[in-house]
């Protein structure tokens, strides 16, 4: 077996304690996402979408199966190594942007470099370039309270790209937005996926977003199947 450079889940099963038994959240799920491509995941509430992202993010270890990230076997790593892999290789975008109220947009991004042990000051040019790429060049010095919901989500996405992740995991980023703004965010994610070369997984409840994806899959009761896009 050759490790793939993007994200590669093979036969992943994940269960949670459930009363006296176990609930199967992911049932032998296999999903390979090559670099520079976007895979959309749809499925009803409770079907395992967030669990799939948690496994791909190495935040949750599956009961069985393999998780390969940028060619590394994530399940075999020690917890500290896994945390390092997460910081260096994985970008995560949740539904709620969780920006820091006291920081400007550019500082939200610079702080990522600081957390990774680098210099926030040196990271400023890259932070400004990323804000430009998400359409917020003129908002760099604004604090979150002056931004719209869609603009906050764009800052959130730019922040996740600061460390040039190989794998970008996005959970319902348009949940709090109207349809038009949601569609613009998904189109932006598709474009950033191509330009950054990240292997992107996007969980969405809105099937009208599927044409932006290179591939679409559906989860039902923890089982994954491929959908036709476009
Ligand atoms: P989705 O994101 O598609 O709504 P989830 O991955 O959040 O689905 O949940 C899948 C199933 O696993 C659901 O039945 C949910 O209740 C259950 N579940 C999720 N997280 C936990 C947990 N930490 N402990 C126990 N059950 C959980
Ligand atoms: Mg969810």
TrEMBL record:
Gene3D superfamilies: P-loop containing nucleotide triphosphate hydrolases (3.40.50.300). The keyword Transport applies. Residues 7-230 form the ABC transporter domain. GO terms for molecular function: ATP binding; ATP hydrolysis activity; transmembrane transporter activity. GO terms for cellular component: plasma membrane. The keyword ATP-binding applies. SMART domains: AAA. Keywords: ATP-binding, Nucleotide-binding, Transport. SUPFAM superfamilies: P-loop containing nucleoside triphosphate hydrolases. This is ABC transporter ATP-binding protein. It holds the Pfam family ABC_tran. InterPro entries: AAA+_ATPase (IPR003593), ABC_transporter-like_ATP-bd (IPR003439), ABC_transporter-like_CS (IPR017871), ABC_transpr_LolD-like (IPR015854), MacB-like_ATP-bd (IPR017911), P-loop_NTPase (IPR027417).
């Amino acid at each position: 077996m050759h490790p793939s450079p993007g994200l590669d889940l093979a036969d992943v099963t994940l269960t949670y304690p459930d009363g006296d038994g176990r609930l199967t959240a992911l049932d032998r799920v296999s999903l390979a996402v090559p670099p520079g491509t976007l895979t959309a995941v749809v499925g009803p509430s409770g079907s395992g979408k967030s669990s799939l992202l948690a496994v791909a993010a190495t935040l949750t270890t599956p009961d069985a199966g393999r998780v390969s990230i940028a060619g590394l076997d994530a399940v075999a790593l020690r917890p500290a190594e896994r945390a390092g892999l997460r910081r260096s290789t994985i970008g995560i975008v949740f539904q709620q942007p969780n920006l820091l109220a006291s920081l400007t947009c550019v500082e939200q991004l610079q702080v990522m470099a600081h957390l990774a042990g680098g210099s926030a000051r040196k990271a400023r040019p890259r932070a400004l370039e990323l804000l430009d790429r998400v359409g917020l060049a003129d908002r760099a010095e604004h604090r979150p309270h002056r931004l719209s919901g869609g603009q906050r989500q764009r800052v959130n996405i730019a922040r996740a790209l600061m460390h040039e992740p190989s794998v970008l995991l996005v959970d319902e980023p348009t949940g709090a937005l109207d349809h038009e703004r949601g569609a613009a965010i998904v189109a932006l994610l598709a474009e950033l996926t191509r330009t950054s070369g990240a292997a992107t997984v996007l969980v969405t409840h809105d099937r009208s977003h599927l044409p932006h994806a290179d591939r679409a899959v559906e989860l039902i009761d923890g089982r994954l199947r491929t959908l036709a896009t476009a």
